[in-house]
């Protein structure tokens, strides 16, 4: 993993763990309900949550499975996860620290690997997917949830630009087609895929990242200058709030 990028991610998220724990966008959603359903018959399973953030996917999984390992680059996030798991009486969650590209676990260690709103920060996607495949048991599953690129160039450029302005540790939101290709290249086959939309309230979206005022102005400028097609697709409101595409899939 790139050490500069690793330091950037830590600095962006280390002090923001509580904000992410309390964020409605992260604490609830159709994807978490779907995750619970997709794990509902996995009572004996061991699960790894890669890039667990404030732990919402880990908490959801822990109510359905035997054991969850919450894994993240940020010590601050992991402290919040451990504390909240204790509060919720979820004693089957353990925490481990490190990047997605280097998973400190043996081959064939987990029945299921999950990841939610983290993959767009991974510095080397192919390395991360290779590691995920390595730690999965034969027949294991990878369940991924993230913001998705709409794919079309004009929409994609706008999304990546505002994401990067708000959060310099952002790498890329991938489209459905890109995800399918990357996962297939690593010897996994997608057998469930759901596209959805996520409404992002502007003031809390920038507050979570402590985005500086001059950058907020730049994002608002871009929102005001966009084409009709971009404005319509992202449903950009007068206050800057907008709607992004999301993707959730399961690969075996």
Question: Helix/strand-derived class?
Answer: alpha/beta
Mean pLDDT: 92
Assembly state of the chains shown: single chain
Shape, principal axes of CA atoms: globular
**Range of strand content:** 15-25%
Q: Which CATH class is shown? A: Alpha Beta
Question: Explain this structure to me?
Answer:
- By secondary structure, this protein is α/β, with parallel strands linked by helices.
- It has a single domain, classed as 3-Layer(aba) Sandwich (Rossmann fold), CATH 3.40.50.
- Helix content is 44%, strand content 23%.
- The chain has helices at residues 3-13, 17-22, 24-27, 30-38, 56-62, 75-87, 125-135, 153-166, 176-185, 202-207, 213-225, 228-233, and strands at residues 46-50, 67-72, 93-97, 110-116, 136-148, 190-200, 242-251.
- It has a seven-stranded mixed sheet.
- Helix 7 links the parallel strand 4 (110-116) and strand 5.
- Helix 4 (30-38) packs parallel to helix 5 (56-62) and helix 8 runs antiparallel to helix 11.
- It is globular and about 50 Å long.
- It starts with a helix and ends with a strand.
- The relative contact order is 0.15.
């Amino acid at each position: 993993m790139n050490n500069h990028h690793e330091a950037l991610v830590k600095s962006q998220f280390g002090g923001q763990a509580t904000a992410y724990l309390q964020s409605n966008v992260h604490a609830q959603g159709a994807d978490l309900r779907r995750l619970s359903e997709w794990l509902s018959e996995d009572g004996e399973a061991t699960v790894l949550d890669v890039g667990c953030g404030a732990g919402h996917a880990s908490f959801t999984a822990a109510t359905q499975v035997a054991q969850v390992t919450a894994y993240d680059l940020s010590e601050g996030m992991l402290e919040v996860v451990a504390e909240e798991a204790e509060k919720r009486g979820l004693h089957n969650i353990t925490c481990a620290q490190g990047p997605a590209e280097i998973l400190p676990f043996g081959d064939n260690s987990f029945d299921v690997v999950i990841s939610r709103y983290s993959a767009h920060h991974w510095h080397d996607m192919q390395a991360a997917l290779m590691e995920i495949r390595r730690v999965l048991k034969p027949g294991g599953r990878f369940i991924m949830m993230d913001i998705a690129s709409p794919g079309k160039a004009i929409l994609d450029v706008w999304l990546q630009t505002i994401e990067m302005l708000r959060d310099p540790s952002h790498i890329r939101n991938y489209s459905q087609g890109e995800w399918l290709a990357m996962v297939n290249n690593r010897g996994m086959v997608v057998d469930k895929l759901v596209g959805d939309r996520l409404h992002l309230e502007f003031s809390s979206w920038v507050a979570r990242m402590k985005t500086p005022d001059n950058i907020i102005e730049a994002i608002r400028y871009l929102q005001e200058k966009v084409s009709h097609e971009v404005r319509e697709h992202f449903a950009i409101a007068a206050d800057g709030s907008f709607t992004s595409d999301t993707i959730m899939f399961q690969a075996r």
